[in-house]
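Blinded run. Sample ID left blank on purpose so nobody reads anything into the name before looking at the predicted structure. Input follows.
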Amino acid sequence: MSKLKPSIFTGAATAIITPFKDGKIDYVSFKNVIEDQITKGIDAIVVTGTTGEAATLTHEEHCDCVRFTVEQVAGRVPVIAGTGSNDTAYGIELSKYACEVGADALLLVTPYYNKATPKGLIKNFLETADATDKPIILYNVPSRTGCNISLPVYRELAKHERIVAVKEASGNISTIAELIAECGDSFDIYSGNDDQIVPIMSLGGKGVISVLSNIMPKETHRMAQLCLDGDYKSAAELQLKYLKLINALFCEVNPVPVKTAMAELGFCDIEMRLPLCEMEDANKAKLIAAMKEHGLL
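Blinded prediction complete.
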């Protein structure tokens, strides 16, 4: 397959947390998180995604997070701004702002709750692509949105020059294989699940948008790079080595465990916005035990 559109990144991108302190965004901690990621070799940063608790940010906070990240990163790695919404007009407003302040690309989640028809999904993404001037990554995560991007919808969206990639978090390897087989020359495919980095990259995926890399950026980058280098045996060994920790990071709804882990590492407070709340004690104990097994604590 010949690639027709440029890649935003290859390797591992971190879907970074949004640190809070006393109910407000903690920009001191935010800066430290970003610098740690870049120092440890991450390939791109995704801000205001699911892991960044975008659903609970005010409009002003959402915009400020994107601007702050772009300014702090200062061109060292690509910055991808999560700007999708279940209100297409509002999503376009956020997307335009992200483009204006210098985000390198946009991450557009499927419209949640509305349960759009295939026609509605296509119109939603195409209108956003037509209204903006940066490359777009589609984000398919039906377990959270109640909406799945089908292969016919992907085929239609692949025709747009600025829709260049997909973050696939459906968990269905068979449908992801079909997507890569049919649209791999029009889309880069990124794993949206940390337990499927190697399987998806072995089929032709270009990397991962990761939760794990918040706490293990160097190791997640290495796993993806081994795949890019064709050393799938070594990459698979890492995938299995970190599987218990990955599972612990999703033993409660994301980003509760990863924010808890980041707090344990001293990067932020354990503070989330309702309806997210602190972990159950038993689950927290499992997470901390898994972190200790890998020498993180």
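Unblinding after everyone has recorded impressions. The first strand starts at residue 11 and ends at 15.
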